[in-house]
Amino acid sequence: MGEKMSFGELDQYLFGQATHYNIYNKMGAHPTVQGKKKGVYFAVWAPNAAAVSVIGEFNEWETEADPMVKVGPIGVWEVFVPGAKVGDLYKYHIKAQDGRDLYKADPYATWSEMRPGNASRIADITGFKWGDDAWIKKRSVTDPKEAAVSIYEVHPGSWRKHPATEQDPDGFYSYREFAHTLTDYVKRMGYTHVELMGIAEHPFDGSWGYQVTGYYAPTSRFGSPAEFKYLINYLHKNKIGVILDWVPAHFPKDAHGLAEFDGTCVYEHSDPRQGEHPDWGTKIFNYGRNEVKNFLIANALYWVEEFHVDGLRVDAVASMLYLDYGKSDGQWVANKYGGNQNLEAIEFFKHMNTLIRGRNKGVMMIAEESTAWPKVTGDVEKENGLGFSFKWNMGWMHDFLEYMKLDPLFRKDNHNKLTFSMTYAFSENYILVLSHDEVVHLKCSMINKMPGLYDDKFENLKAGYSFMMGHPGKKLLFMGQDFGQFQEWSEERELDWYLLREDRHLQLQEYVKDLLQMYKKYPALYANDNGYDGFEWINANDAERSIYSFVRWSPTKRNNLLFVVNFTPVERKNYWVGVDKKKQYKLVLNSADPKYGGDAPVADPVFKAVKGECDGKPFHLEYTLPAYGVMVFVF
Known about the structure:
With about 625 residues, the protein is α/β, with parallel strands linked by helices. The protein contains 16 helices and 29 strands. It is elongated and about 90 Å long.
């Protein structure tokens, strides 16, 4: 006999407190047995609705067929529908207090209809057999701050595509196909993690997944929820971590979505000065309402605990923290102290980050936060911080790109653009990012930002990536930029993989691969990212020649790395770089190696330090530093 499923008093109490952390096991659609009847239990929160019914393929979309019953004062409605089954499409028919008929997708649906349809689809996400125990166990005893983290940011719909056909105009890879091809690529290159864009269900491809209508539903563009689990499981079995983009900042106004869900503002503020982003044309969540906070916090936990993801990159954090973000006077409401900080969003972040990282050791919460808000990665209790694991370093990214775009002639006057970031490098736990945002909207691809003629662009980019790899902070690179994609990224077409038939693109890809492998191999590059004991300038002031030299120290002080990066096309014969000790320094990376398209003779890779003051050090190495040359020594 099946036990009756219901949204009981304890469920209502916890939901009202924003602490019903696995509420997705009750809300939404759940295949079950009641009495001896197989069917589906539905539950939805619509506190101000006059009436709610569930409509779908199982009842011919009849609004009267399966009326729901309101349980308790919190406003949850429920019904058991015999005969409804996995795969059936459904919606909620909501009769608003003002008499309007609304047809809404399920906020807690775990699967959706393929766009342009927008109904929810009944799924059973239980019973998947995971094979990633070893990965999860290792994750739980690893502090991400001291681990190698190099992230490959990927938009699955445009990474690779099948040729379009009449039956399949999109040509999307399925989650399963994507699992195998992506894993092969990421393993070969040496990235440690992938970050997937646009996984939560969204109606419009052009939003890249940043305007979400199905927070609990992996997009049906690439398959079912079980197939999405297969993708994560497969990546984990191949020792690759998975980060998802997550968007708790705002949601679109689509009629089937969360906006005015029961005819009133339920998920958003009713005052448009608090509830809308004028620039984006989207709604802002009401973080002070416990049921809304619960919806979001449980959603973050859902991806981590149900789908085993290793981290969430939280989009547009600044827009949540500042009440006046993107707004002019009169368009926003100050907090109770008269300030522009969103106190409810701050509380939301502290609650969520403490909970997720406390329950899931080793999981990363990453803030895309573009201002100087203090202690984004600070401890919630000790430092009154927001409790994120990492923050995207937008300041570094901006200065780095401004510098790289310059003709080498003008770099000497902008030398501090690359040194300034070290004045604040340890104020947060940073990730250095060159993300999708930097290669769209006429900003040019990475290779096309570079100055000079064809060959110069590749040499510049190699120097830039080398500096990034040596600089403290974890790393993120958007797809296509590791082989010199010329076109800007578009979600409508696949990457220009054909470029890899040309030597320069293949050589750049090989170079980035070797940078990534070097990064993973030497703890000096990642284990000491958060203090000056891991980084030392040798010469930060050689503006005239636009050369930067620095050491990354490993925690054991063995296998340290000395970087020398030349940002001009001028070869420096008899170049000196200062070192502390009279010992041997082994060249482990030379950007002028013939395998990367250079013309440096393959000489003895071991250099001996000789006596003679340089850069304030008693000894020095002497060698020829190539044009745009990068040389990395281990000692």
